[in-house]
Amino acid sequence: MKILNQYYPGRVLVLLFTENVLIILGVWVATCIYTGRFYLTLLYYPALFGKALLITLVCQVCFYFNDLYDLKSISSPLQIVARLLKSLGVASLILALLYLLIPATRFGSGIVETSVIGIALLVLLWRVLLDWFNRVYAPGDRILIVGTGPHAQSLARQVDGRPDLHMKVIGLVSENGVAPKSSSSGIACLGRLEALSQIAAEAKPDRIVIAVEERRNHLPMDALLRLRLGGTRIEHGSSLHEKLTGRIPIDAVRPSGLVFSEVFQTSVRPIRYRRAIGAAGATLGLMVLSPLMAMIAIAIKLDSPGPVFYGQERVGLEGTIFEMLKFRSMRADAEQATGPVWAGRHDPRITRVGGVLRKLRLDELPQLINILRGEMNFIGPRPERSHFVETLRHRIPFYDARHLIRPGLTGWAQVSYSYGSTWEESKEKFEYDMFYLKNMSLPLDLLILFQTFKIAVQGRGAR
Question: Do the beta carbons of residue 48 and residue 42 sit within 8 Å?
């Protein structure tokens, strides 16, 4: 299924729905066993049903935070078991705390413990059964890639890296008159472009993906049209790459593809709404988080000499320079000898308190002031330092496009990619920024906020 212009396994929705049912079923069975009564359904007992829904909500949140619905990151059944046990362990602790604080939400003695054991068995058996069914019976999408160059090879690797989508590259078609037996990725080359109709008739692909290095006067349009009318899907390689990875491959994109795209939505009205929502959210955030920010300021002062806040020049909307605020997480003289450099892993310049702040992303909280001043938004490309922008705009095509909207406290690149400390990594992060520029919407913003909170809680990807 395609959501927000990305491909997700359809069985994710199946898992979300059925595991809700299984969790409630586990609670229902445990309730019947411990009360000695057979409840035909918990719906007739609002108090019991409300308590069952609370357990369901807590379990599902723990499943989400432990990546049980991120199927592409699950490589083995043992990983499912480990994540499931961890999720239910954390859920048990959360429920114990809730029952302590709100006694009215408790079940009788032994019911919750039995429910958790039952949920673990039901969910595990269901996952194993569904995985077997998908491997044996799920229809796969057979893909024929037209092209043997770097873009085609990269696309083949991306498809191979998403076994959760049941896609398979059945072969490549050479566009340069040479038909090698196999490509550098090990995928068979089935023939030359002139024989595309015959190759498609024999291979029977569900989808033909055009990933040639140069399309002008090379593609057999008559053959492609016949295949398209015959029910075979025809797609550009960059489009499939975008849906598989959530980023736009800049090297494979032509300016016309961006200019004439119908999904760019940087109109005046949505941008005005984003500004109003940002100002209101920043005001509320500063009011609610001011006690926490005060405690962080005290910890910074006690940990190392220097100011509490750190201001750094960044490039914002339309290339304007502004001072982005942070809680200081490095020594006060961190760049005195080196000048502007990217932070590295285990950077010795980071203080003890600073390491904790960076891990939990708490050093970014003062940027609520930047949002209130109109220099930033909650969601958008992260603002880069002008020193690096001058270099990157000459090395990365379309780099200044990220300055067409206000930079963000968090963004699609931040939740999709780790910290970038080289220009190659910056290029890959920019490809995620371009995906956001092309597809930005309120649902995508909400997804980014959820993912940001999840990453902050887990402390992943910080430097």
Answer: yes
Q: What DSSP character marks residue 76?
A: S
- Cα→Cα distances 299→89, 288, 361, 439, 446, Å: 32, 19, 15, 40, 32
DSSP 11-55: HHHHHHHHHHHHHHHHHHHHHHHHHS---S-GGG-HHHHHHHHHH
Domain 141-245 is found in CATH 3.40.50.20: yes
Domain boundaries, the chain: 2-137, 141-245, 268-458
DSSP state of 382: P
Whole-angstrom Cα distance, residue 305 to residue 227? 70
Return d(Cα 308, Cα 300) in angstroms, integer.
6
- Would you say the pTM of this structure is higher than 0.85? no
pLDDT tens digits along 62-74: 999 999 998 888 8
The b-or-e profile of 319-345 (16+ CB within 10 A means b, else e) is eeebebbbbbbbbeebeeeeeeeebee
Tens of pLDDT, residues 77-89: 889 999 999 999 9
